[in-house]
Design goal:
Helix content is about 40%, strand content about 20%. It contains nine helices and seven strands, in the order αββαββααααααβββα. The protein has a five-stranded antiparallel sheet, sandwiched between helices. Strands 3-4 form a two-stranded antiparallel sheet. β5 and β6 form a beta hairpin. α3 packs across α4. The radius of gyration is 18 Å and the shape is globular.
Length: about 250
């Protein structure tokens, strides 16, 4: 992976961790990047917390205001309905990374709660999007805190955590196809891109290889969409191949 990044002279950071034994490796994993849509996952977690606390439920009808509708990413802005069940909006948020869904759900939580959970995960993001003092930056290493919290259910109940991880197994960014990973391997991931405030493309997730659980986070800057997607695909493929080869060595030793 280091050779690939160096050969192509790319601005890429990578962090990988085995969630079963804590082994980890990184390449510039503490370098900060604009968060893109990775900030949608903390919002989803807070929504699920409200469901656990009986403040909301999957059938709660959420109003879609004109100010919510944006064509910046996703198709939800096109619908004629003035309200939708929370479950549909939440699915659009994580499966499609829909920005209209993000705006709808953001209105259901307080900025104080959002800032609290961002701080808890060590994500250097200002929850008040209207009053930014400086560009928000997150690192691949910091994103591991969020995913480990989901995997180990430190904030949500296990059923709620698994529900969100399940939604992220079916996103519009088909990482398995891009990385040539078999269908039976599950990857629960969230991607994000922003080509308005620079050129950023990221993908972070958990790879389920048999009984092994591998967290990965890849962040890129200054790459066009095609190059960024190809780079992420190559790196995820290398991670998967390494995990498989090491497992094969272990089985042979046994």
């Amino acid at each position: 992976i280091q050779n690939y990044i160096a050969k192509n002279q790319q601005n890429v950071s990578v962090y990988v961790e085995n969630l079963r034994n804590g082994a980890f490796s990184g390449i510039n994993e503490k370098t900060g990047f604009f968060p893109t849509s990775l900030n949608k996952l903390p919002v989803a977690i807070l929504i699920m917390k409200k469901i656990e606390n009986n403040e909301l439920n999957f059938n709660t009808m959420l109003e879609i205001k004109d100010i919510d509708r944006t064509d910046s990413y996703g198709e939800l802005y096109k619908i004629k309905e003035k309200e939708l069940p929370l479950q549909i909006v939440l699915e659009a948020l994580l499966k499609d990374s829909d920005n209209t869904a993000f705006r709808i759900l953001l209105r259901q939580i307080s900025l104080g709660d959002l800032q609290l959970i961002l701080d808890y995960y060590g994500l250097d993001i200002n929850a008040n999007l209207q009053k930014k003092q400086s560009p928000d930056l997150i690192t691949p290493k910091a994103m591991s805190n969020l995913y480990k919290s989901l995997y180990f259910s430190t904030v949500l109940e296990p059923e709620s955590s698994e529900y969100l991880l399940g939604l992220m197994s079916y996103t519009v960014f088909d990482i398995k196809n891009l990385a040539n990973i078999p269908d039976e391997v599950r990857i629960s991931h969230k991607f994000g891109e922003n080509y308005n405030l620079g050129s950023f493309f990221h993908d972070c997730g958990i790879m389920y290889v048999d009984e092994t659980r591998i967290f990965y986070c890849i962040m890129t800057k200054d790459l066009d969409v095609e190059e960024a997607e190809e780079t992420v695909g190559v790196i995820v493929s290398e991670i998967y191949s390494y995990v498989r080869s090491e497992k094969a060595k272990l089985e042979a030793y046994k």
